[in-house]
Amino acid sequence: MSRHKHKKRFGQNFLHNPRVIERIVKAIRPQPTDHLVEIGPGEAAITLPLARSGARVDVIEIDRDLIPRLEALFAPHDNVTLHAADALTFDYSTLDPKPLRVVGNLPYNISSPLLFHLLDYRDHIRDMHFMLQKEVVDRIVAQPGSKTYGRLSVMIQYYCEAQYLFTVGPGNFNPPPKVDSAIVRLTPRPFPVQAKDDTLLSDLVKQAFSQRRKTLRNTLKGWLDDTDFEALGIDPGLRAEALPVADFVRLANHLHHKRVHD
């Protein structure tokens, strides 16, 4: 079979280092009873070790030029099902049995929207292991007070426990990307403090970080006033990057209460 021509529009950087592949599979720890979903298998470097664990594996690939190659690779494995589909629009609720364990080397250009699409199915997902641009993983796991702490940090951590596992350098891919990658583990969690309106929370967080150098008093002007901040015991002179996830939830719930009663 001829060599696959990597397509920039799909963000294709295929992992080829066996030691890194082994380390990723060890982090996932697939079991025969698991139902795994792999997004963007590439040339199946991770898929085949996952399949050899005995787990059921559903694979989602958008590049139709890769489908014949993957079908040939998966032919000996009756526990692998290939879906020629777009992971950004795929309905993960149709896959049974649940819960699902999602893995993938995600294209850098669609990583954030894909993460949020998957979070819509969080009730069906046990955990997720992703290779992402290191900068994105740094933002996901960032803590309040960090310069990398932002909207992505707050929203991912609201839904999931996020754990930075390890860094993967460019030389482990073909073709090599221009930046480092990293592996992150995301585990959907029961909400210790649940927002009454997730959309309102998302909108408020986006607004709060819309001008990072300004204080909450300024960025949320017209949303909340000093009386609201005082009622919650939150300093309106803080910047958004100083606020923990739970405080954003408290602000969103307070705003929800105000709007309902107004």
UniProtKB/TrEMBL annotation:
GO function terms (MF aspect): 16S rRNA (adenine(1518)-N(6)/adenine(1519)-N(6))-dimethyltransferase activity; RNA binding
Span of domain Ribosomal RNA adenine methylase transferase N-terminal: 20-190
Keyword match Ribonucleoprotein: no
EC number of this enzyme: 2.1.1.182
Keyword Transcription regulation: no
SMART domains: rADc (SM00650)
Keyword list, A-Z: Cytoplasm, Methyltransferase, RNA-binding, rRNA processing, S-adenosyl-L-methionine, Transferase
CDD domains (alphabetical): AdoMet_MTases
Cited InterPro entries: KsgA/Erm, rRNA_Ade_diMease-like_C, rRNA_Ade_Mease_Trfase_CS, rRNA_Ade_methylase_Trfase_N, rRNA_adenine_dimethylase, SAM-dependent_MTases_sf
Compartments where located: Cytoplasm
Binding positions (S-adenosyl-L-methionine): N13, L15, G40, E61, D86, N105
Enzyme class, broadest EC rank: transferase
Pfam families with a match to the protein in the record: RrnaAD (PF00398)
One of the record's GO cellular component terms: cytosol
Catalytic activity: adenosine(1518)/adenosine(1519) in 16S rRNA + 4 S-adenosyl-L-methionine = N(6)-dimethyladenosine(1518)/N(6)-dimethyladenosine(1519) in 16S rRNA + 4 S-adenosyl-L-homocysteine + 4 H(+)
UniProt similarity note: Belongs to the class I-like SAM-binding methyltransferase superfamily. rRNA adenine N(6)-methyltransferase family. RsmA subfamily.
PANTHER family xrefs: DIMETHYLADENOSINE TRANSFERASE, DIMETHYLADENOSINE TRANSFERASE-RELATED
Cited function: Specifically dimethylates two adjacent adenosines (A1518 and A1519) in the loop of a conserved hairpin near the 3'-end of 16S rRNA in the 30S particle. May play a critical role in biogenesis of 30S subunits.
Name used for this protein in its record: Ribosomal RNA small subunit methyltransferase A
Organism from which the protein derives: Sulfurivirga caldicuralii
